[in-house]
UniProtKB/TrEMBL annotation:
It comes from Timspurckia oligopyrenoides. It comes from the Eukaryota. This is Uncharacterized protein.
Length: 189
């Protein structure tokens, strides 16, 4: 049976397969979103990885898979997109960022990951290379550090960081409503 070990945690073949499959599906979604919106950096919450870095690596492998145009079901396709994927478990939040080769002049994976980790006590990068950085942030209920809550906060921190580098669009202020709603009294009917 295929398995991978990371710091004493065994990722069994079934979990790896589920993680890869989720990555393939999410990759197609990101590719479509990037094509429609022009956004080239995404933050994605992952369900199947259980906060495990090895499972996050498998998700990322599925996301970045080259698309087989002849396949019945599209998988992957987001290898040209920068992304931070996050997975919450009871004991920790797992994070992995990926920067494609063509975007390495814009951003380094460890810089992105460190920007996110600065907001959380106890988080650390556990592995990195020229295109990826993986980190974990342990849960600490005594300090109100819960993985699900941290995941949402980490996404917000990541977006703010990307916006500061002009790699993610600023949200429009909805207070300036330029659209008017007309009623029957506004027309000579």
């Amino acid at each position: 049976m295929l398995s991978r070990e990371y710091k004493g945690i065994m990722a069994d073949a079934k979990k790896l397969k589920v993680a890869f499959k989720e990555g393939g599906k999410r990759g197609v979604e990101l590719e479509g979103s990037a094509d429609l919106s022009g956004i080239q950096y995404f933050n994605v919450a992952i369900d199947s990885a259980e906060g495990d870095v090895e499972l996050l690596k498998e998700v990322m492998r599925g996301m970045n898979l080259e698309v087989d145009e002849d396949a019945e079901e599209r998988k992957g396709g987001s290898g040209k997109i920068g992304k931070l994927i996050l997975s919450a478990a009871d004991h920790q939040l797992g994070l992995m960022c990926y920067i494609p080769e063509a975007k390495k002049d814009e951003l380094e994976p460890t810089a992105w990951m460190n920007a996110v980790l600065e907001s959380f006590e106890g988080g650390s990068i556990v592995s990195s290379d020229e295109s990826t950085a993986c980190a974990v942030i342990p849960a600490n209920p005594d300090k109100s550090l819960f993985p699900l809550k941290m995941r949402d906060e980490a996404i917000a921190v990541s977006i703010k960081f990307l916006q500061g580098k002009e790699l993610f669009p600023m949200l429009a202020d909805d207070d300036d409503d330029d659209e008017y709603v007309y009623g029957d009294d506004d027309f000579d009917v």
